[in-house]
Amino acid sequence: MSPITSTATEKTTDPGPVSPAEPLLSPSSATSAASPPYDTPPTGVRHVTATAARVRRAVRRLPHLLAKGATKSAAIVALLLLWETAPRLGLVDRIFLPPFSEVARAWWGLALDGQLADNAVASLVRSFSGFGLAVAVAVPLGLLIGWYRPVADLLGPLLEVFRNTAALALLPVFVLLLGIGETSKISIVVYACTWPILLNTISAVRNVDPTLLKLAKSMDLSAPRLFQKVILPSSVPVMFTGIRLAGAVSILVLVAAEMIGAKAGLGYLINASQYNFAIPQMYAGIITISAIGVTFNQLLVAVERRLSSWRLPVGG
What is the mean pLDDT of residues 198-204? Predict the structure, then answer.
């Protein structure tokens, strides 16, 4: 091959330098590279789609929720029907057990004239004050007794004496020492609520899973960290069992205390209605106490689930 032919071949095959103005990609490939692999809907569209999905899920769950609600309320509805029909059919004396409709009218009348609200507020203030003080005292004391054996050995006999002494048996003592005012009523609630919380807290601390304690100690956790990370979270369910029991006790004991020397409160309302032979008003007060107790218990259950949600399985 001649030198001239070789030079011509090299010029033909050599692409030469690429001009800065020339695109490295073709227009079609550049367009496909710039465009996303799929179209992303706007934020508003995504929000509407998510809302529609939640609505569809709620609609699908509605029959299940209605069936569940009907199952839970069936016993209550049956009791109210029996309460309404038994006096009307003469099965019981309607003077001493009026039909539920009469009790409902009496309850509405008390609510309209303000008597029900005034007495309920007085009872709730006393009950919640005593309950709060009992929680503030009994929970730390129970954790201390359950965690430190010397403290338990020192206070154990004293606790056994007072835990077996009924709160209402000490009501005259509280009245004699503290008078018939608010102090004695709140104090008797504190005393009655302390024992369920204290005993359940002690039991919760002592019955923590030993395997968890061994694992935590193998990680060289300090005593405060061990208490914070293992003892306290593990004690929450049993501790809240005592708190829920104390919530019910706080209302029951208070009603009994308000029947002695009180000028306001649901216990006073029930007692005064009985003396005045206003039987429907008496039952209205009893129903109000029951409703407050159920509501308070459900509130404590919600708080317990919130604090011990780590124990629930995923999706449970």
Answer: 89
